[in-house]
From TrEMBL:
<feature type="signal peptide">
    <location>
        <begin position="1"/>
        <end position="22"/>
    </location>
</feature>
<protein>
    <recommendedName>
        <fullName>Concanavalin A-like lectin/glucanase superfamily protein</fullName>
    </recommendedName>
</protein>
<dbReference type="GO" id="GO:0004553">
    <property type="term" value="F:hydrolase activity, hydrolyzing O-glycosyl compounds"/>
</dbReference>
<keyword id="KW-0732">Signal</keyword>
<dbReference type="GO" id="GO:0005975">
    <property type="term" value="P:carbohydrate metabolic process"/>
</dbReference>
<dbReference type="InterPro" id="IPR013320">
    <property type="entry name" value="ConA-like_dom_sf"/>
</dbReference>
Length: 220
């Protein structure tokens, strides 16, 4: 075997090994179909849900019966343990006022998680995207109003938009509608929220719609 052929073969072997290693170091979970018994989906005197269509797409539709500015509700699979990885989902806001819709990650329970949520009514402003950790019974968004927790983005008012988030260590990057540049980069994720589930998030809105949650978890 000549030196050129040997070098080419060696490079191909290294590339294949790297690809296999990368594949083996992650696990992908597809939650496009939600099995209710495997999820935490609140249904009580203030919150309800249905599986139906929104704008011709099958979706999880959440409804809040009473407005509450302290409301924050994660909806998530029970048996997922996520620390770092890639989160993708589609979100829409069907309501008429107070759109607060998003996703949550490293979810320990209903009151301990990190969230990134979107305000379609604030599209194009610094208030369009908000990051915050939640560690109290009430969703205390007023403690995280500083601009460092927020970012500008162009969001549709009532139609579907795609979200991709890359979570690694203390950093989250959030991309909207397949843009190549992240709309939000936050480098100080809460160190006390180390791992947990991933799911949808529903704030002080009358309605919200979600579909196609895909989670790629990096193995430790």
């Amino acid at each position: 075997m000549n030196k050129f052929l040997f070098s080419t073969t060696l490079l191909l072997m290294i590339a294949c090994a790297s690809a296999i290693k990368a594949q083996n170091n992650s696990a992908t979970y597809n939650y496009s179909v939600i099995k209710s018994n495997d999820w935490v989906i609140p249904r009580n005197d203030t919150v309800d849900y249905t599986f139906n269509e929104y704008l011709g797409q099958k979706a999880l539709l959440m409804k809040r019966k009473y407005g509450n500015y302290k409301a924050g509700t994660p909806i998530y699979p029970r048996n997922l343990n996520f620390k770092d990885g890639v989160i993708e989902l589609d979100i829409a806001w069907p309501g008429t006022k107070g759109g607060y819709v998003g996703f949550a990650f490293r979810i320990k329970d209903a009151h301990h998680y990190e969230t990134v949520y979107f305000r379609p009514e604030s599209s194009g402003t610094i208030n369009a995207i908000q990051y915050m950790p939640e560690k109290k019974a009430d969703f205390n968004w007023w403690d995280y109003e500083n601009d460092k927790y927020q970012a500008k983005a162009t969001l549709p008012m009532h139609t579907w938009f795609h979200v991709k988030a890359i979570v690694k260590g203390s950093t989250v990057q959030v991309f909207v509608n397949n843009e190549t540049k992240p709309s939000l980069v936050y480098n100080h994720l809460d160190s006390s929220l180390k791992s947990g589930s991933v799911g949808y998030w529903f704030g002080n809105s009358s309605d919200s719609a979600y579909k196609n949650l895909i989670v790629k978890a990096f193995k430790r």
